[in-house]
Amino acid sequence: MKKYNQIVFPLIIGLIISLSACQQAGKNSTGSEYIPDMAHGVAFEANLYSYYYQNTWGTESEKHKMSSPRMPVNGSRPRSQATDALAMANKGMSSHQGISIPVNGSVPYYYANTEEDRLRAMAEIINNPYPITTAGLAKGKELYDIFCGICHGEKADGAGYLVRDGGKYPVQPANFLLDEHVQATNGRYYHAIFHGRNLMGNYKDKLSYEERWQVIHYIRSLQAGSKNLVYSEKENTFRTVEIPAEVLKAKAESEKAISAVTTKENQ
What we know:
Layout: H1 2-21, H2 36-39, H3 60-67, H4 85-91, E1 94-96, E2 99-101, H5 115-124, H6 134-147, H7 149-152, H8 179-182, H9 186-195, H10 209-226, H11 245-266
Antiparallel strand pairs: 1-2
């Protein structure tokens, strides 16, 4: 009997261990893990919730608190925040503490997601802070095709894929070629991109400050093309508030030459 127990008892213990160790992977479980540290990191990672009871110190709520994003220190500002968007954008960069850096989505927007502020943005935001450039229009087309074309159409006529070809869409997307949208200020477009409009969600987290304006430039170029007008880096016969880069460059060179002559005469 003693010999029997020496054989059977270890077999039972081994079977129990085998059954408990051979866990099958499931929808929310990885199953058995030989070395949990290889699949579940022990370090805290920003904005990543990775609690795992086998190798995480503290409680689950403590882990969640440590992994959650926090608000910035009071008074801090993004390094790329522009204080004068128009002046900075004309140079294609911002100057913050003597460092030249690209202008991006950190530029503040002081219009809330309300109808009152939408109307205020439409009335106050007139000029596109970026000059018309060939590279900017190309970038604007790329972004427009990705984020806008599926609804508003490749030609900006409101006939995107979700509307044509048997597609179903509960609301007709805006036709940017209509006079209402051609005559609309840039503020109407920027506010819609930043906050969204009707069934259209916002794109402030998908498009940077400069990219939003390049998309608007491209929409303007499509509107100009529909009226057989020019909207390019060299010339703009469509609207006066958007300045071609070549015109801006020529104006800067002219002002520089006049300044040089004036300085020489005063010496």
